[in-house]
Amino acid sequence: MHLIADAILLATRQHGEHGAVARALTRGDGVQPGYVRGGRSRMLRPVLQPGNMLRGEWRARTVEQLPALTVEMLHSRAALHAEPLAAAAIAWVTALTATALPEAQPYPYLYDGLDGVLTAIESAPSARGWAGAVVRFELLLLAELGFGLDLERCVVTGLTEDLAYVSPRSGGAVSRGAAVGYEDKLLRLPEFLLAGGQPDGAAITQGFALTGHFLARDLLTERRAEPLPARDRLIDAVKRAVA
Q1: Helix 201-214 vs helix 228-242: angle between axes, to the nearest 10 degrees?
Q2: What is the C-alpha to C-alpha distance for residues 166 and 132, in angstroms, rounded to an integer?
Q3: What is the distance between the alpha carbons of residues 120 and 51, in angstroms, rounded to a whole number?
Q4: What's the helix, strand, coil split of the chain in %, to 5?
Q5: Residues β-bridged to residue 154
Q6: Which of 61, 82, 77, 63 is nearest to 10 (CA)?
Q7: Rounded-to-integer distance, Cα 107 and Cα 4, Å
Q8: Which of 32, 97, 143, 206 is the most exposed place for a label (fewest CB within 10 A)?
Q9: CA angle (6, 10, 13) in 5-degree steps
C-alpha cells in the first residue's frame, strides 16, 4: 500500500512511548489511519491537531498492516484550539466524522463539506456565522450515510410550500397546515435549512435539535454514541454565545 494525498486530520491517539496513530479524511480514499513515528514530539504535536489540512504519505507492506504515515502541514488551524468555542466546534465535527465513517471508502462530498465547515469556523467573526454550517454538515453526513431527511415536500400532503416541521419518525417535512394539532409531536424545521442565509439564535437551536434527533437515533448508537456529550457541550456554549 502506498498512498499520497491531501487530508483533514480527524483524530490522534497515543501509540507506544513516542508515537501516535492518526486518522485523516482524504477526498478520494476516505478515512485512512496511520502510525506517525515521533507523533508525540514537540515538533509534531501542533501538526497533529484535529482540523489541520495535511499532505500525508501512507506506506504498508500489506493491506492488513497499519501503515506508516509521514505528514506535511498544508494549512494549520491549531491556533483555533486556544479559542474555547471554536475548539469545541472543531472537536465535534472531526469526532463525528471519525466515528461515523468507515475506513477507506470515499465520501468526496463529505470531505468538501468538512473543509467548508472548518473554513467557516476559522473565518466567521462569531458563532452565529458558523453554527448553521455545523447543522448543515450534520444533515449532509446523515444523507451520505443513507439517513437523509426529505425536506423538499410535505410528507402528508405532497405540497412544497410552507414547510415548518419534520416528522421524528419518517424524517419527512410537514407543512404548517398539516401539522395543526400535532405541533408538539413534531420537530421544528428552521427556515435557513430551506432558504439559506444566516440563522438567528432560535433557528440555530431548532436546527441542532432536528439533526441531533436523527444522529442519536440512526447513527450514533451504542459505542458510537461516545462523542455525543461533546456535541451537548458545544450546543450549550453556542446558545450562550448567540443569545
Answers
A1: 170
A2: 17
A3: 12
A4: 40, 25, 35
A5: 173
A6: 77
A7: 17
A8: 143
A9: 120
The set of residues, in sequence order, having a beta carbon less than 8 Å from that of 6 and lying 6+ positions away, is 26, 27, 53, 54, 55, 56, 74
Residue-wise pLDDT for 40-79, tens only, equals: 898 999 999 999 999 999 999 988 899 999 999 999 999 9
| pLDDT: which is higher, 62 or 163 | 163
What predicted TM-score, i.e. pTM, was given to this entire model? 0.94
Q: Name the residue type at position 198.
A: Q
Across the chain, the runs of DSSP E, i.e. the strands, are 2-15, 19-26, 30-36, 53-59, 68-75, 150-154, 163-166, 172-175, 187-188
pLDDT-derived band at 90, boundaries 50, 70, 90:
very high
Q: Which pLDDT does position 104 carry in this prediction?
A: 94
